[in-house]
Structures are given as structure tokens and as C-alpha cells.
Amino acid sequence: MTRMESTVFPGQLAGGDAEGADGRAARALEEELWRRMSNEGDEDARDELIVSYRPLVFWLAKKFTVRPSSYQDLVQEGMMALIRAVDRFEPERGLRFTTYAFYRIRGQMINYLQRSESRAPIPVEDELLAVDDGFSPDAFDTVLAVLEEMKRLPAREEEVLKAMLIEGMEARDVARERGIDVSHVYRLRRSAIAKLRKCLGPEATNQV
């Protein structure tokens, strides 16, 4: 898969009710990517769709309590589920991709955890029945909104917030990777969250 920047599609947010020219343009872009992939077999369009939703795999993975040694395997399982979801999604059926992908990514992660504990896996189809543990497709869409708003933050704040909130990194690891003090990491995080809450409200940042 080629490397490219993550693109968030505001047309997906809150059930696809994005407003304004930016929202309409983003929605049109996503529709065009699905069309190119489905009708023309365009691999670049497929790659861009996968990369766009990749942060949500990290978000779902950090909702599970796992040993550090299992976290990357959990992310890998989620990425495989995301790729299959992109390949099998049928936009013409009218279902939101975030809803479709949520259950498949989450279901595969649960199956992996149960396999690793030598327990019988739950079929993905059973995961469609109910979600009552506090994270859902609606929360999935909220994370997309937060990711979109993160693009407006100063670069260092965006990097730190994505690393800690989306990828689940510890402050000390973020500090070591970027060559800064842990206290500076926390200051950047607080500043970024304050700005996001001002734009989106506290409920949005509580989801990530």
C-alpha cells in the first residue's frame, strides 16, 4: 500500500450531515473514491480509503485491555478487518461505511483475543446484534470529527494528541520518540484538548 496522508471525510460524520462547502467537497471526494475502486478497480483509490480509516483501528484497539505484547497483534487483526471491509463494502446499499467497518473490526479483534485465550470465538455476525459496552458506530463517527478538527491544531499538538489518544502511546514513549520532556508532552496534550473542546464540546473528546 502506498504511503499517503490520512484523509478524513466530513461527509461521514454524524450520519453524513456535514454542512458547508468543505463537507460537500469531502463527501464528493469519498464518493468518487468508492466509484473508482468499485467500477474501475483503482488501487490508489482503495489505498486512500484504507489509510483514511486507519486511525479508527488504533482507536478501537485501545478500548481493549490487553498485554503490551498483544497490542500490535490486535492492531494487525484490526487492519486486516479494515482492508476486508473496504474490499467488500457496497456503497449503493446505503449503509454508512463507519457502521459497516466498526462491527467487522471490533468482531475480528474479539475473535483474536478469544483465540489467544483458547476460547471459542464469537462469529462476526453475532457482533451485529448488540453493542452495550460504551463504544459504538456513533462514537466511531465522533472520532472522525475529532480527527478532522485535529488538522487545525499546531503540528506538535496534533502529533502528540494522535499518538496518545488514537494510537494509545504512553506520555513517556511520546517524549522519548520526539526528544522532549514528559511534562512538555502533557502541556501539549492539555492545550490541544482545550482547543478541541472549545470547537466540538467536551462530549466529543470523551470518546477518544
| CATH homologous superfamily caption of the largest domain | RNA polymerase sigma factor, region 2, helix turn helix motif
The proportion of residues forming helix, as a percent range, comes to: 55-70%
Rg, Cα atoms, Å: 17 Å
N-to-C CA distance = 27 Å
CATH fold name of the largest domain, please? Rna Polymerase Sigma Factor, Chain: A
CATH class of the largest domain: Mainly Alpha
Q: What is the overall silhouette?
A: globular
Global structural class: mainly alpha
Q: State the domain count.
A: 2
CATH architectural arrangement of the largest domain = Orthogonal Bundle
Tell how many strands the DSSP assignment holds.
0
β-strand amount: under 5%
The biggest sheet amounts to: none
Annotation field: number of helices = 9
Query: Element order, helices and strands?
Result: HHHHHHHHH
Mean pLDDT: 75
Low-confidence stretches: 1-19, 120-134
